Amino acid sequence: MHEARTILPGFVVLEGIDGSGTTTQLARLARRLDSAGLRHAESSEPTNGPVGRLLREALSGSFAAFPETVARLFAADRGEHLAGAGGIIELTAGGTLAISDRYLFSSLAYQGLTCGPELPGLLNASFPLPELLLYFELDPHTAMERMASRTAFEIYENLEFQKRVASAYATVIDSFQDSGMTIVRIAANESPDSIEARIWSSVKPLARGLATSR
């Protein structure tokens, strides 16, 4: 159980192990929101900013970085993602639904394994929680099968590590069960269309509520 945190209205996060389908469904959700005429902005972590680009290089294995360094880089990138110009806080304050593919939960799961839970917990303790968390649950074997066609893999994208991440994610998400944010668990082995419909039923009321409150 975590201490009480600020919930950021209009902020939606998609989380899940590599290959669980968050990126695909983020694109589908964006199309739905466009069709409905609802203001929205999509992003991902690591971001495309300077710190995020450095992180992506580390994750690709192009240079070796200590696990603690990676954890700190994720937190720095997240701070810019939230509070930087055009970031999530600014977007939601202006009535735009902000949707991110990954957020602090992935740091608590991934970096919690690579450098222990204490540092990621400390680095992410002050960040607000999203109003809605969409957690994609998928067997690691299935996830790795989906990624089989990739030509390049990140340092964490192997079956044994993904098994550990899946277990860590479950523990992390459960720890936020009474945090005040809405958690929707997505069975990521279902068809893309059924997953899209489930996500839309969760996001549509939130997006419309944000639009009418401005």
**Order of adjacent strands in the largest pleated sheet:** 2-3-1-4-5
Portion of residues in beta strands equals 15-25%
User: Into which percent range does the helicity of residues fall?
Assistant: 40-55%
- List how many beta strands DSSP finds: 5
What is the 3D form?
globular
**CATH fold naming:** Rossmann fold
The averaged pLDDT comes out at 91
Fourth-tier CATH superfamily name: P-loop containing nucleotide triphosphate hydrolases
Distance between the first and last residues' Cα: 33 Å
Structure annotation, total helices: 9
Q: How does this model look, in words?
A:
The protein has helices at residues 22-36, 50-60, 67-83, 88-93, 104-114, 118-123, 140-146, 159-175, 192-212; strands at 7-15, 40-44, 97-101, 129-137, 182-187. It has 214 residues and is α/β, with parallel strands linked by helices. It has one domain: P-loop containing nucleotide triphosphate hydrolases (Rossmann fold), CATH 3.40.50.300. The chain has a five-stranded parallel beta sheet with strand order 2-3-1-4-5. Helix 1 packs across helix 9, helix 3 runs antiparallel to helix 5 (104-114) and helix 5 packs across helix 8 (159-175). The termini are far apart.
